[in-house]
Amino acid sequence: MKKYLIKTVLAISILIGSYSCTELDLIQEDAASSSTWYTTPDHFRQSVNELYRVDFWLEDKSSNGMSDNFQRRDALDAIKAGTLSSEDDRAANNWSLMYRAITRANVVAEALANQDGVLTETMANSLRAEVNFSRASYWSYLITHFGDVPFYEGELTIDESFELPRTNKTEILQKIYEFYDDASQNLPETYSGIQRATKGAAYALKARTAIYMGDYETAADAAKAAIDLEVYELHPNYGDLFLPSTKNSPEIIFQIPRSIDLNETLGGVQDHLPRNVGGWAARTPTWELLGSYEMVDGLPIDESPLFDPKNPFKNRDPRLAETIVPFGSQEDGDGLQPDSGSRFLGYEYNPHPEHKEVTNYFTGDLTRNNDTRSVGPFASFTGLLWKKGINEEWVGNRADPNKIIIRYADVLLMYSEAKIELNEIDESVLAALNKVRDRAYANSAHENPAVTTTDQDELRLKIRNERRSEFAFEGLRYMDLIRWKLAEEALTGFTYGLASVSSNPDVDASPTGDLIDNVVGPNLWFWGMVPDIDENGLPRFDHLVNANMARVLNKISFPERQYLWPIPGNEILLNSNLTQNPGY
Fold it and tell me: Are 352 and 520 in contact (CB under 8 A)?
């Protein structure tokens, strides 16, 4: 989307303002619900633009990490703590946001149905398609997170909102498909200028909804329809795709814009940045994520002869070094040692506890290394930092990367996965999977170790790990674990980090502790042993903890009830026809 659309969305947001109603936010008390508002085409356009507000396009991310890819020091999200309840603020807020968005979309839909010649038929059909695209996406979030929910298409009175029961999610799913089908039939493939929802976006998000709901036939068909448009292609460089400067790419199917000029920026920036550049290094990748990337021979780290636990970034899938800031040796012959750092945001990043000084590349001088735990007790607890999409623009705490909702790589992998689950494995399945892998290796010294097996079980494991490598830090891992019924495995046990070490900013003071005695001293830095990979592709570190080479940061637990979120308690108090999900 161009700046025009951003400005329009923000202007309408100011016009409408914010409000909160406990009764599903069903009544839209603003100008757009007035019978005198829809008198010009521009009124309709502005009201539809309101549906693109960034707040209405929710991601499965949290400050403490909802999945096994992401954590904030030793803090726990309620999902990983196993304490999600009907009083959870996030569940209540997301429920409210979605119903607020749905109500606004319904208001516009009714106005379009009764516009009486204000719009041409073509314009009315196009705007209705955008509304239906948005409604389908909002309802999709609700049924995939809450299950059966109250469903309605028009405007309800407050009294009616107190009585609305839950509708079976399979019924809502069929309506979602109808909404997406209308969008795909009436939206253009591309726009010249302002970018909005397109035919391909409708196909792609229909595929995502279907695959989340286990409807693999619909998912495969919708993903294939998006592919057959021949509108999209993979960005040539994986790492560059996510930078704030990459505002438009042929890979992006649908995104919500951000803009520093319009004060629409990404929050929580400092939590991701190194402490050497003024950040807090608080939200970090997990050891589980680091261990999950395969080797350049296509094998997992516990099977490949290429894996070196002293150099965990060496000979790995190239996406790893574009996702997590690397250190140590990465390729044979690069001259780097396990205790070597790498350049990131103008400084050397090196979590090694004996490197209490690092290079400031702006000046060429050595400076205190605040990113090692022997200097800073709040340096990254895992020794890891996010790199994906992060560049110098983040340092000013004003980063504005666009919010990518769905991209072409996801469509290719959904197509492959759906066909694998249907056991309809043919050359197109392998081609789509390997196309994503080819791009991952395109700018490296290695060729893609192409997937050639046609065994369903082997391919299932491959596609699941491929999604983890491709989409880390993009908010997709949580719902993948939910739909694969792997959350109980992946989110039960422990979170892990570096073994204990003394902290002293004096560069001449020698650090002490388990990290020195059991890992650094015996020349075993970074990991003292090879992590195990279980039958689901999940790395395990218990043996490192038992050998005092690592420490447990926290115990995590995912009870079965959390496969669905709780219906907010205040909604149930107001509506006696609402029932709660099991276990809450």
Answer: yes
Q: Which domains does the chain have, with CATH numbers?
A: 198-257+404-484 (1.25.40.900), 266-401+493-556 (no CATH)
Residues whose CB falls within 8 Å of the CB of residue 212, separated by 6 or more in sequence, listed in order: 140, 144, 479, 482, 483
231/576 Cα distance (integer angstroms): 49
449 close to 297: Cβ distance less than 8 angstroms? yes
Alpha carbons within 13 angstroms on the beta-carbon side of residue 559 total 12
The interaxial angle of helices 89-113 and 41-49, nearest 10 deg, is 160
CB atoms within 10 A of CB 67: 28
Question: What's the one-letter identity of residue 81?
Answer: A
Q: Determine contact, residues 101/47, Cβ cutoff 8 Å.
A: no
Q: Measured between alpha carbons, how far is residue 146 from residues 20, 82, 558, 561, 580 in Å?
A: 20, 16, 16, 11, 10
Strand partners, 552: 496
**DSSP H or E stretch at residue 357:** strand 357-360
State which H helix or E strand residue 287 sits in. Answer: helix 287-292
CA 47, 101, 57, 184 torsion: positive or negative?
negative
| E-assigned strand segments in 168-307 | 252-256, 283-285
pLDDT tens-digit series, residues 519-574: 999 999 999 999 999 999 999 999 999 999 999 999 999 999 999 999 999 999 99
440: closest CA among 209, 153, 237, 191? 237
Q: Does this model's pTM top 0.70?
A: yes
45, 196 in Cβ contact below 8 A?
no
Beta strands in 206-332 (DSSP E): 252-256, 283-285
Query: In this structure, what token pair is assigned to residue 179?
Result: 């909404």
Question: Distance (Å, rounded) from C-alpha 490 to C-alpha 481?
Answer: 8
Closest CA to 549 of 487, 496, 482, 479: 496
pLDDT tens across 428-474, in order? Answer: 999 999 999 999 999 999 999 999 999 999 999 999 999 999 999 99
At 544, phi and psi to the nearest 5? -70, -40
Distance CA 442, CA 100 (A): 44
Q: Which residues contact 390 (CB under 8 A, 6 or more apart)?
A: 272, 273, 345, 399
First-to-final CA distance of the chain: 41
